[in-house]
Design goal:
By secondary structure, the chain is α/β, with parallel strands linked by helices. The protein folds into 2 domains: 245 residues, TIM Barrel, CATH 3.20.20.70; 71 residues, Putative flavin oxidoreducatase, domain 2 (Non-ribosomal Peptide Synthetase Peptidyl Carrier Protein, Chain A), CATH 1.10.1200.80. Helix 7 runs parallel beside helix 8. The chain binds flavin mononucleotide (FMN).
């Protein structure tokens, strides 16, 4: 049984990766339904929280049914991160996660996210301060290092454990790689197999099929796998991986009707949670995957991704659902 303190996560947990504008409550509801064992919010700026910025505050919304859930923060200033930790603690998440992996320039240029990988002593001081500030378990999400010459994740993980971090998720790329090339899990395996490490180590990067999940689980010995992009518009990935791990067989993938139902539920929750304009806009990146592999779907997909009229979008989705027999998978 993999545990983060007293949070039981099952034998081999599958985690939903924190993803800005993706891993929000509407999407998390679907991932939970389809088997995600631990989920994280989108990253939240510590500076935003302190300023009480509406967007940052809203990202802390969590619901009972989605537990266990972690709130992820990022920042460059240790004092601000401590203050943000106190604010987050009041919303009662199960876990606080620190982002030391975001490669986006506007984040790293100030030294936050993956920017912290250029100053490991500060990264450790910041983590130490956060662990001391809260009674909640603290986890970290990070990358292999800043660049090819500074892949310090093995030693950094030891230091993180020493200051009290209770699990680490590692994306097998450097900051400089961004999302290019293949994720390299070799060092993730080294962290996991380091005899000094006692806390759960979750591997992350490029897992997009049940076969790959099993292969990487066996090859690198990680305690669980975190899935990001493959879940976008395809929350079924979690239960498909689980089923394959348990039986060696594939679950049938969802049919057209089930996909449309999920997309409608997702859209409705998004609009309710974010308002119509943003709710509709942020759904667009999901449609491609929701309807991937359906023959002659281009015309409908185009309408879904270009329309900002809720009524029209729902009409298209209803039409597809009512005429499901007309659509076939290639
Ligand atoms: C749209 C998008 C937003 C992301 N936002 C975050 C974030 O807020 N916090 C974070 O730690 N990582 C973020 N990531 C990185 C993912 O959590 C994950 O590490 C990365 O996508 C690699 O995993 P994957 O290959 O399974 O997608 C984001 C990735 C994507 C594609």
């Amino acid at each position: 049984m993999v545990k983060i303190r007293d949070i039981e996560l099952g034998e081999f947990p599958l985690l939903l990766a924190p993803m800005e504008d993706v891993s929000d409550p509407p999407f998390r509801a679907l991932c939970k339904k389809h088997g995600a064992d631990l989920m994280y919010t989108e990253f939240i700026s510590s500076e935003g929280l302190i300023r009480d910025a509406a967007k940052s505050v809203q990202k802390m919304d969590i619901y009972e049914y989605e537990r266990p859930v972690g709130i992820q923060i990022f920042g460059y200033d240790i004092e601000s991160m401590r203050e943000a930790t106190r604010i987050i603690e009041k919303t009662n998440p199960d876990i606080i996660d620190i982002n030391f992996g975001c490669p986006v320039k506007k984040v790293t240029c100030k030294g936050a996210g993956a920017g912290m990988l250029q100053d490991i002593p500060k990264l450790i001081r910041m983590t130490d301060a956060i662990v001391k500030e809260t009674n909640l378990p603290v986890t970290v999400k990070t990358r292999l290092g800043w660049d090819n010459e500074s892949k310090f994740v093995v030693s950094t993980s030891e230091k993180l454990q020493d200051v009290g971090v209770e699990a680490i998720s590692i994306h097998g790329r450097t900051r400089v790689q961004l999302y290019k090339g293949d994720a390299d899990w070799t060092l993730i395996g080294e962290v996991k197999n380091n005899p000094r490490m006692r806390i759960p180590i979750f591997g992350n990067g490029d897992i997009d099929t049940p076969e790959k999940a099993v292969e990487y689980k066996n090859r690198y010995g990680v305690d669980g796998i975190m899935i990001g992009r493959a879940s976008i518009g395809y929350p079924w990935i979690f239960k498909e991986v689980k089923h394959y791990m348990a039986t060696g067989e594939h679950l049938p993938s969802p049919g057209v009707k089930e996909r449309v139902e999920a997309a409608i539920q997702h859209l409705e929750m998004s609009v309710k949670w974010k308002g119509e304009t943003l709710g509709i806009a942020e759904m667009k990146r999901h449609y491609t995957n929701y309807f991937k592999g359906i023959a002659h779907f281009k015309e409908y997909r185009m309408k879904l991704v270009t329309s900002f009229d809720l009524k029209e979008i729902k009409e298209i989705l209803d039409f597809v659902s009512e005429n499901e027999n007309q659509f076939e998978f290639v």
